[in-house]
Amino acid sequence: MSDTAAVVNVAEKLAQFSELWSQKTVAALNDYEVKLAKVKGEFVWHTHDDTDELFLVVSGRLTIRLRDGDVVVGPGELYVVPRGVEHCPVADEETAILLVEPTGTLNTGSAGGPLTRAAEALD
Description:
Elements: H1 10-14, E1 24-29, E2 32-42, E3 53-59, E4 62-66, E5 71-73, E6 78-81, E7 87-102, E8 120-121
Parallel strand pairs: 1-8
Antiparallel strand pairs: 1-2, 2-7, 3-6, 3-7, 4-5, 4-7
């Protein structure tokens, strides 16, 4: 038997916000958060020293710049950036992404700076 209260409609959640590069927590899984974000433009080069980072593109197209070559991720595709690998997400068009990371992971990893934001819960 399923628990319908736990169903998350990704499209409905994405319609609730418009801010770019602002992660919204929509679910929890063990010690992980499932987050949504809308992105456009270039983020900052950063690493997550203690965790991998999963990017799933819901709509649009995301380029994940890596020092040894770019990875392009389209709708319905995902890519995992291994822990400690420096990366820089870039989107030429507005792109909706779903991320899975340990609870409390900062969006800018070890880089810090003005774009650093904690994820906000989305009802």
